[in-house]
Amino acid sequence: MKLIMLGSGTSTGVPRVGNDWGECDPLEPKNRRTRVSIIVENSSGQRILVDTSTDLRAQLLATGIGKVDAVFWTHDHADHCHGIDDLRVMRYDRSNPLPGIAGRVTCERLRRRFDYVFAGQFGYPTIVDLKETSEVQLVAGFSFDNVEMPHGPVKSTGFRFEADGKSLVYATDFSEITQAMIKCFKGCDLLVVDCLRERPHPTHAHLDMALELASKVKARSTILTHLDKSMDYGTISAKVPQGVSVGFDGMEVRL
């Protein structure tokens, strides 16, 4: 199984509009971050896309990815779903819509906001066949589990994907560690985890919380993501313990 990190930044990316790099060194390419999204690929070459970030088209072009076999959404915040229209080209050579998976509330909100994607419109075909997480167990050669995570006043879905005898957890956009999360993520081979900044934040995990989750689930390796402009790649890389890496756009990890 392979992880491809399409984007590793927070909702405004790094640099922010106005060329605001914050504390990030602009000369370090790994500090240039688009909005978060990942690809998970199995040994058969089947790919799952998690979240359709605002920067999806540029991310897919940069990584040379022209098709995916299923799409998962963690929640409906703009930075995680507003690149959804870039899925249209992946429908062109398919006889049926792309499988799509999300939690119940996220499904409801996506259908309201992007009705043409899930029901077709004006003669255009349906792009995604969207189902709730409770309706599906196997997708595109992967089995998966999921858990709802507190994300400030709303919820985000954490996913655990399994294939080829390995497990990968994607837990972004959470503000509290719950026992249900620990149970779902326990013993994973790779944890990709929310880590907005070093200081606590009301709706996101900060560095200590991200490391706490990695310790509690006994993740074999951990990658930090959803990083803001205060999280300089070199500075944070020097602070994290062994087995923990700072994520960056285009990063690839084979499990």
From TrEMBL:
Per UniProt, residues of the Metallo-beta-lactamase domain are: 34-226
The protein's matches in Pfam families, at most eight in alphabetical order, are given as:
Lactamase_B_2
Protein name, per record: MBL fold metallo-hydrolase
Q: Which domain of life is it from?
A: Bacteria
Gene3D superfamilies on file: Ribonuclease Z/Hydroxyacylglutathione hydrolase-like (3.60.15.10)
**GO molecular function: any one?**
hydrolase activity
Q: Does the keyword tRNA processing apply?
A: no
Q: Which UniProt keywords apply?
A: Hydrolase
